[in-house]
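Mods, move this if it's the wrong board.
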Amino acid sequence: MLSRVFGFGRRSFDSLSEQEILALAISSEEDDGRIYRAYADGLRDEFPQSAKVFNGMADEEDSHRAALIDLHRKRFGERIPLIRREHVRGYYERKPDWLVRPLGIDRVRQQAEEMERQAERFYVEAEKRASDAATRKLLGDLAIAERSHETLARRLGQKHVPEDVRSEEAVSERRQFILTYVQPGLAGLMDGSVSTLAPIFAAAFATQDTWQTFLVGLSASVGAGISMGFTEAAHDDGKLSGRGSPLKRGLSSGIMTAIGGLGHALPYLIPHFWTATSVAAAVVFVELWTIAFIQNRYMETPFLRAAFQVVLGGALVFGAGVLIGNA
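Not the wrong board. Structure tokens:
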């Protein structure tokens, strides 16, 4: 781990021979081509037009790699040294496609443009190290190509993804985000915020013991989070409904359920009962209005109707908890 962070056991770029620089360029172009094709594979089912963009990017990298291999063959023969970006200190790294793909189409396009900028800087520095005229020419040409390709993703996007298609993809992406994250998360937040009101405030007014109330709230929140998470993940695998990964939905629902309950349980870590209860009540107010805002923002529910439903329901559950606690 330390060797990876501090660069121990890596070569400095200045220590590389011209053959090793060519080998590094070849492996880098090969990796970039694979990354672009992985982006295309990840986008093909839902965004086929954008997938064409990244297939075009991969074709560009393949042409660069072929030119570099031809030059290496002429100068150094058939054997290409094994040297990759992780072997060179300070060399730019690439994010695996599984880290980038969930971030959306625009994020992937931005990543592609950053990859082109990094490649250009590499070829500029590599050209400075080369003494052979043919090598310098090729590296310089590739630097110019990368500079012109810095916006290749955008230009290919204009060709393969016209404005109407881009708008359709954006709508589809937003819909998928809502189905996978917002909808289950909102259901969890509503359940955690509202369903735990009665047991927490009933325990609070029945015992007037802040620590015991906190333990009740903690157990209710964590238990509800686990239950909601498993229920969401188990009842729909997402293949037919199109709601996305059951794991992602389960985590969204479970985590937001726990957060919804813990919001008004945590104030009972304050030892003074009425202070803790006042803070908890204020937190409940914020939670309910937050739920109404999310419903209006993502589910397109009219704000006043969402507020009426959520606040009225929360007030009824809150009142039930207080009445039971004082019984």
